[in-house]
Hints:
By secondary structure, the chain is an all-alpha fold. It is built from 16 helices and two strands.
Amino acid sequence: xxxxxxxxxxxxxxxxxxxxxxxxxxxxxxxxxxxxxxxxxxxxxxxxxxxxxxxxxxxxxxxxxxxxxxxxxxxxxxxxxxxxxxxxxxxxxxxxxxxxxxxxxxxxxxxxxxxxxxxxxxxxxxxxxxxxxxxxxxxxxxxxxxxxxxxxxxxxxxxxxxxxxxxxxxxxxxxxxxxxxxxxxxxxxxxxxxxxxxxxxxxxxxxxxxxxxxxxxxxxxxxxxxxxxxxxxxxxxxxxxxxxxxxxxxxxxxxxxxxxxxxxxxxxxxxxxxxxxxxxxxxxxxxxxxxxxxxxxxxxxxxxxxxxxxxxxxxxxxxxxxxxxxxxxxxxxxxxxxxxxxxxxxxxxxxxxxxxxxxxxxxxxxxxxxxxxxxxxxxxxxxxxxxxxxxxxxxxxxxxxxxxxxxxxxxxxxxxxxxxxxxxxxxxxxxx
Length: 432
C-alpha cells in the first residue's frame, strides 16, 4: 500500500481515537476533583459516587444503540455528534453551580463517549485490511489506557493551573474541536469500497440477535465476572487519589502520580495478557481465573494495610493491581466465542455492558460506606475520611473481585476458538 493511502487510513482512525482518549480520560477524572466538588456543592461521598456513576449509567445504556447508529448512519456523523454531546457535557460540568447540572453534564459526557470506541473499531474494519483488525483493536485499547493516564497526574496539573472548572472547559474545547474534525475530515469508507453500498442490518434482525445472545446461558458468566471485576476498578479510579490525599497528606498532583501506577502497568499488562492467552497458553478461562484471584489478594492487602504501609508499598500494590488487572481484556473474546459467530459484535457488546453496569451500580454505595466511616473531619470545606473508612470501602471492592473470581470458575474454556456449536449441538438457537 502506498504511503499517502496508509497515512489517510491512519488519519481516518486517528480523529475518532483522539476523541476516544478524552472519553477514557473522563472515566478517571472525578477522582482528581473529588475535593473540589465537595467544596463547591458540599457533596458527600455517596453523591460523589453517584456523580461518577452517571457516566457509566449512560455508557451502559447507550452501548447497543450506539452500534446501531454507527451501522445506520456511519462513523463520520455519529461520532461527530457524540463528541459534540460529550464536549457540551464537559462544558456543563465546568460551568455547573448545582448538583443537578453536574449530574446532567456527567451523564451527557457518558452518553457521547459511548460511540467513540465503537467508531474507532468500525473505521479499523472498513479502512484497514482484515488482518490488521486485531492489532488496531489493541492499539485502540492502548489509547484508552493513555486516556486513563491523562486523567491522573496530567489532569491534576491542569486543574492546579486553571482550576477544575478551567480544566473541564479546556477539555470541552478540545472535544468540540475533535467533533468538528470528525465531521469535516472523516469518511465512512474508502472511495469506491463495496462496504459503502452494503445494506445496514435490519433492526428486527439486530434485536433477534440480541435476544439470542441474552438467552444463551453461557453469555452470563463473562457478563457477571466483568460486572464485579470492573465494579472494583471503577471505584479504584474514583477513590485512590482522595485516599492518598487524606491518609498520606499528598497534594492532588502527587497523589495522582502515584495513582497512575495502575494505568502504567495496564499499558503493557493488557496487551500481554491477550498475547499470552492467544499465542502461548491457548486458554481463556485459566488466565482469567488466576489473575482475578491475584487481584483479590492485592485488594485484600490494600484493605488490611490502609494507612499503615509506606507510600512505596502502596505504589507497589497499585502497580500489581494493574499487572493482574489486564485479565479484563479476556472478557470480550470469551463472550464472543460462546455465541454464534455471526453475532460476534452483539456478544462483545453484551459482555462489555456488564463492566459498565458494575461501575454504575456500585459507586454510590461504596461512597456510602465511606460516609458511614466519616468522623466529621473537614478541610477547606471537603470531607476527610479516616483510614478505617477507606479500609471498609476497599474491603467491599475486594469482595467484588472475589465474586468475579468465583464467577470466572463458571466460564467455558474456549481455547481461543468459537465453541458455540459444541455447546449447542442440537441447533443454533440460544437457551440452555
